[in-house]
Amino acid sequence: MDSKDAPAQIVAECEDEETNSIDTLISTPIVDYSSNEEKLEMMADAFRTILRCVGEDPDREGLKKTPMRAAQAMLFCCQGYTQSLEEVINHAVFEDAYDDMIIVKDIPMYSMCEHHLLPFYGKVHIGYIPRGKVLGLSKLARIAEISCRRLQLQERITREIAENIMKAVDCEGVGVVVEAEHMCMCMRGVQKVGSRTVTSTVLGTFRRDPRTRAEFFSSINHN
Hints:
The protein is of the alpha+beta class. It is 37% helix and 22% strand. The chain has a five-stranded mixed sheet with strand order 5-2-3-6-7, with helices on both faces. Strands 1-4 form a two-stranded antiparallel sheet. 31% of the residues are buried. Its EC number is 3.5.4.16.
């Protein structure tokens, strides 16, 4: 499915899992149990247990450092829990009279499925119409990272990005499309390699005005 075929909301259901409706999805809470060093030790111990449970010897040569490496990788992939919208924007909101659509597309994204702890990855396309203020372009990608670098649902990521941009710059409207391939559908379960999930959220004038919405979808599909 191409993003041009995406309706205003596409909610994908994960096989064998009960998913929430898009209206009830909320931002993932930020929880900090301990220092990074303590977290890494606890996570490394957990990975050692996992290795034993799958039939491996965590003390053999090739796996001795794997638990700590896996713990470090997991913290990196979940660094969004330590980021806030205010810190990421860092005052990069500028007054400007530009009032046409701004689009940044093909932003690479990587996240982790909260149901199976397997990765999903793809692209994010973002468009917004400013109202007297514009965001530094790199901040759109950084706002996307806040949501992507967590245990997530693609539907939630899409809506969080749109809502955070609205909050950051108080714009006329926002459109966000996420296209991703989920390893939980490719490596296990239904094993449909190459299938992509497309989700979209439109807020403000993007939702109210069909012409604005059509311009956005047309622009992100124009090479």
